[in-house]
Amino acid sequence: MLKGERLLNVVQAMGNAHRSDLVRHCGYVSVNADGQEHLHYSAFYEALLAATGIDLPGHNGRSHRKGTHGRELSYSTHVHFNGNLMVGRAYTEMLQLKPGDQFRIQFSQGQIRLVPLQSKAR
Fold first, then answer.
1. SS (H, E, C) the chain
2. Could you tell me if 56 and 73 are in contact, meaning their C-beta atoms sit under 8 angstroms apart?
3. How far apart are CA 11 and CA 84, in angstroms?
4. pLDDT at 109
5. Does residue 26 contact residue 7 with C-beta atoms inside 8 Å?
6. Mind listing the pLDDT tens digit for each residue in 71-108?
7. Orientation of helix 4-13 relative to helix 41-51, angle to 10°
8. Spatial separation of the C-alpha atoms in residues 27 and 106, rounded to whole Å
9. pLDDT attached to residue 50
10. Structural contact between residues 68 and 90, judged by C-beta atoms closer than 8 angstroms
11. Please, are residues 20 and 39 in contact by the beta-carbon 8 Å criterion?
């Protein structure tokens, strides 16, 4: 996802492109396991506002969202006693993940990345 000056440059370069094309081209898109595309307009507009120097009250430079039980999402976790890391339901719902969705785990430069595997058919 593009941010800052790079985001502004692409938006300006694309001129009168349709907003869905802008959102997609700037990387604010995800594809579900069933192949459906989901455009993240809110995240795109928040990044665009931040890139232009507009700070929305209560955001502190990051998006604040409420989980399914009204708790504010912290975007951090900890290693449990058994060595597992937990990603809560609120996060999987935001990404529209379903039980059985599969991911490849990539480890590079001290970071873990989950890459969705394309399902054959559901």
1. CCCHHHHHHHHHHCCCCCHHHHHHHCCCEEECCCCCEEECHHHHHHHHHHHCCCCCCCCCCCCCCECCCCCECCCCCCECCCCCECCCHHHHHHCCCCCCCCEEEEEECCEEEEEECCCCCC
2. no
3. 40
4. 85
5. yes
6. 566 667 778 888 888 887 777 877 788 888 888 888 88
7. 110
8. 20
9. 84
10. yes
11. yes
**Cα distance between residue 114 and residue 107, in whole Å:** 9
Tokens of 22: 């802008």
The per-residue pLDDT for range 7-66, each reduced to its tens digit, is 889 989 988 889 889 999 999 988 887 888 888 888 888 888 888 887 665 554 444 455
Q: What are phi and psi of 37, to 5 degrees?
A: -90, 140
* Token code pair at residue 26: 């700037």
- C-alpha–C-alpha distance, residues 91 and 83, integer Å: 20
Q: Which residues contact 109 (CB under 8 A, 6 or more apart)?
A: none
Instruction: Tell the residue number behind the tokens 């595309």, with chain if given.
Output: 37
